[in-house]
Amino acid sequence: FRQADGSINRKYGGTGLGLSISKELTSMLNGSMNVSSMPEKGSTFTLSIPLNEETHDNEDQNKTKLTALIVEDNEMESFAICNVLQKQGYNCLTAFGVSEAMESLSANKVHALILDLNLPDGNGKEVLKYVKESPYYTDISIIIYTSSDLNRQESELLESYSNLVIKKENKSILNLQQETLHFLQSRSMVKTEISKTSLDGAAQILQLKGKNILIVDDDERNIYALSNTLEGRDMNIFSATNGMDALEKLRLNPEIDLILMDVMMPEMDGMATTKIIRSSNSKKRIPIIAVTAKAMKDDREMCLEAGMDEYVTKPIDTNQLLLVMNSFFE
Q1: What CA–CA distance (Å, rounded) separates 5 from 13?
Q2: Which residue stretches of the chain are H helix?
Q3: pTM of the model as a whole
Q4: What is the pLDDT of residues 70-80, one digit of tens each?
Q5: Could you give the percent of the chain with pLDDT greater than 90?
Q6: For residue 19, how many other CB atoms are within 10 A of its CB?
């Protein structure tokens, strides 16, 4: 998929990233996606997904499988997550409300719980409380998946009771599938390896704590998502929606420690903005990381030539981004 206008400062945004994700997700569901498009007329997308797919696992195989319970009232999302887990050899159970989830947890040994907080017959926190108070679920992996707006106190509380909290605004179904598989597969790791990973992560956050970060992106939804992620790790956030605004924010806030720069922006794109920053007489060289969906072969080299220090592609992997950011303060 590509834009008719391929320049990085074009009037209309979008790179086809959402379409690429949709195509990959469709493929995971054994479906197909086609498009017909005409200039000035519009585009028609056709999505075909099989409704039923039988599995032929024998009882011995089922005994060795790990089991995941998906508590989600959106049937399409629940099916998509369950489908990819089954293809990886896991047993998959689904529940569409609190009562169904309680019944399933009581009748089965569940190794991983993917829990939506907003359920039709109650709050997902009831399920979370049940699991935490049960002596049978001391080692369960818990992923909370929600569209609720959480304040910092609520986020910290949920994080203390779970392995991961994913907001639906920030992550696609594809991301959730990948995170869920990661947690299930990591259950075979020994405790010393898990402890080392946790310590490394804590050290990483300490390095970034208190840093002043400027996010430059013409899409306010991206700014919101990144701000939530970084503020939750005690960073101070400044934001700008275009290159000119970014230059003004830098002038008014010389304490800024690092810039996350979108490449494709109207009026003044990220590369032009970076060149102006680098041509200034400032004695302080601020690290600039390109954060962009523009992921062609030579894009990284072009960003580095413009004066950027590193390159991260969308959709953003939070751990990767934190590692890259942290590398400038070690």
Answers
A1: 10
A2: 17-28, 59-64, 75-87, 98-107, 124-133, 152-161, 173-185, 191-208, 220-231, 243-252, 270-279, 299-306, 318-326
A3: 0.46
A4: 998 887 778 87
A5: 17
A6: 15
